[in-house]
């Protein structure tokens, strides 16, 4: 499942929902649940120079329509690569504050290895393929966060394997 | 008519989020569209000055500069993504 939303998410509730089948019973074929949560850091990126200060807000813009398609495509690819029982990607948009949740990835599998690997894969691809852009507001005004080469390298690693 | 969309700093530089345009018939690829956009005034020339850093999507699918735009209804231009 994928969701793009302005509001916050509750990690515990999302895990509980993911564990239940359509009749509301807790599934017993899941042996491992991995969650990753991305949160807003208050420090500006090191690449912005020493003493750049702290951010006051982070605003996420996205491409409605394409975002949902990309997230669904990424999730489908994860299910093709690993034996997953269930998965969830939630990404927030709009203006966020330091400490706020940005993104949630949950993967559930019979065994932990598939759940760990798939969660990592989803985040690596989400960072490089899903059309979201971050804009930071700090002491020196507003600026767009630049893409990191290390994110591209992390995503490229999955293509080599 | 083709809908063009601009996001993040590309949108700020062009000054518009979207527009419907008649692309020149000679434009066959994403790169051709960018070359044409650059001729449309200083805002567009500035927005696409570093065209190698700009990413594109044709009908909501990532597309390289040499990708065909034949039959495209929607072409989007944006910086490398920074979500997650």
Automatic annotation (TrEMBL), chain A:
Xref: PANTHER family: MOLYBDOPTERIN SYNTHASE RELATED (PTHR23404)
Compositionally biased region (Basic and acidic residues): 137-151
Region called Disordered, residue ranges: 137-161
Family to which this protein belongs: Belongs to the MoaE family.
Functional pathway: Cofactor biosynthesis; molybdopterin biosynthesis
Coiled-coil region(s): none
Pfam families recorded: MoaE
Subunit organization: Heterotetramer of 2 MoaD subunits and 2 MoaE subunits. Also stable as homodimer. The enzyme changes between these two forms during catalysis.
Function: Converts molybdopterin precursor Z into molybdopterin. This requires the incorporation of two sulfur atoms into precursor Z to generate a dithiolene group. The sulfur is provided by MoaD.
Any one biological process term the GO annotation gives: Mo-molybdopterin cofactor biosynthetic process
Keywords on record: Molybdenum cofactor biosynthesis
Enzyme class, first EC level, given as a word: transferase
InterPro entries: MoaE_sf, Mopterin_biosynth_MoaE
EC number: 2.8.1.12
The reaction(s) this protein catalyses: 2 [molybdopterin-synthase sulfur-carrier protein]-C-terminal-Gly-aminoethanethioate + cyclic pyranopterin phosphate + H2O = molybdopterin + 2 [molybdopterin-synthase sulfur-carrier protein]-C-terminal Gly-Gly + 2 H(+)
GO molecular function: molybdopterin synthase activity
Protein's name according to its UniProt entry: Molybdopterin synthase catalytic subunit
Domain of life: Bacteria
From TrEMBL, chain B:
Domain of life: Bacteria
Gene3D superfamilies noted in UniProt: 3.10.20.30
A Pfam family: ThiS
InterPro entries found in the cross-reference section: Beta-grasp_dom_sf, Mopterin_synth/thiamin_S_b, ThiS/MoaD-like
Record-linked NCBIfam families: moaD
Protein name: Molybdenum cofactor biosynthesis protein MoaD
Organism in which the protein naturally occurs: Methyloceanibacter caenitepidi
């Amino acid at each position: 499942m994928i969701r793009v939303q302005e509001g916050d998410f509750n990690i515990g509730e999302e895990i509980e929902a993911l564990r239940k089948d359509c009749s509301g019973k807790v599934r017993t074929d899941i042996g491992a649940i991995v969650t990753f949560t991305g949160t807003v850091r208050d420090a500006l990126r090191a690449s912005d120079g020493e003493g750049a200060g702290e951010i006051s807000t982070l605003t996420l813009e996205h491409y409605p329509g394409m975002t949902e398609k990309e997230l669904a495509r990424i999730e489908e690819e994860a299910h093709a690569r690993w034996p997953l029982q269930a998965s969830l990607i939630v990404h927030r948009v709009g203006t966020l504050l330091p400490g706020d949740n940005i993104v949630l990835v949950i993967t559930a599998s019979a065994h932990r290895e598939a759940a760990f690997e798939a969660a990592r894969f989803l985040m690596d691809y989400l960072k490089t393929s899903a059309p979201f852009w971050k804009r930071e507001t700090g002491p020196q005004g507003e600026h767009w966060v630049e893409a990191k080469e290390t994110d591209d390298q992390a995503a490229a690693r999955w293509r080599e394997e | 008519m083709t809908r063009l969309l601009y996001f993040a700093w590309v949108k700020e530089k062009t000054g518009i989020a979207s527009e419907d345009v008649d692309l020149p018939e000679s434009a066959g690829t994403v790169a051709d569209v960018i070359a044409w956009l650059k001729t449309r005034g200083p805002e567009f020339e500035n927005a696409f000055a570093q065209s190698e850093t700009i990413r594109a999507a044709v009908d909501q699918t990532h597309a390289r500069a040499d990708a065909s735009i034949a039959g495209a209804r929607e072409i989007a231009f944006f910086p490398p993504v920074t979500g997650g």
